[in-house]
Amino acid sequence: MQNYQLKPHVRACVDGANLVFLDLRRDRYRAVPVRGAPPIAGLTDGVAANNAIEQGLVALDLIETAAVQSGPGLQRSRAPERKLVPGQDGAPTLSDVASFTRSCVGASHALRARRLDLTLARLAKRKAKLRGGSPPAERVAAMFETLRPWYPRERVCLFDSLALMGFMLARGLRPTLVLGVRTTPFAAHCWIEFDDMLVSDTSDHCASFTPIAWV
């Protein structure tokens, strides 16, 4: 039996009876029954693999052959229950406003480009470079919420998560951007976590989604 692994631009998760793929390069989702999926490293064992499903996933450029089948390891736990409570630490500074504006503009450009693979790679690179101290996360979250009404764009989870991620990185923090999916009914969502706490949204909402990609 042929063993497979995800292509570099693809992420996947098991949600109930479905195996869901996210093609970051094309910003598209695809779901197949777990039971019919071929053996994919870290996700499925391929015991009941269906040849048509296997060929379809290869043709869609979602999986590629792998030399060795590895064990589970691509799944992430669902959203944490604790919520970060924004603090009250005075009015935003000019530096806060400048960082906020750059983060929102950057998020807008990323959405127009429609290349999640490149966007997540850039965020990962910025995150990896951060060292040393940073302001309290509670203050940074509060500053973002204070300034957000002044940016003329409707609240949408992907834009706000990208903007908040960029703002927190700019202030020296290392948050995690999580993209989640559910299949019954199908829906996609994203949120920000920091230090095992939710920064955006609520646990009740995010917990209904299975993480499929994160940075």
Explain this structure to me?
The protein has helices spanning 51-59, 94-113, 116-129, 137-147, 157-170, 203-206, and strands spanning 4-6, 10-15, 18-23, 28-33, 63-65, 176-183, 186-194, 197-198, 210-214. The chain is α+β, with helices and mostly antiparallel strands. The chain has 2 domains: 4-65, no CATH class; 94-214, no CATH class. The strands form 3 sheets. The chain has a 4-stranded antiparallel β-sheet with strand order 8-7-6-9, with helices on one face. Strands 2-3-4 form a 3-stranded antiparallel β-sheet, with no helix packed on it. A two-stranded antiparallel ribbon has the order 1-5. Strand 3 (18-23) and strand 4 form a beta hairpin. The longest helix is centred in the middle third of the chain and has 20 residues, at 94-113.
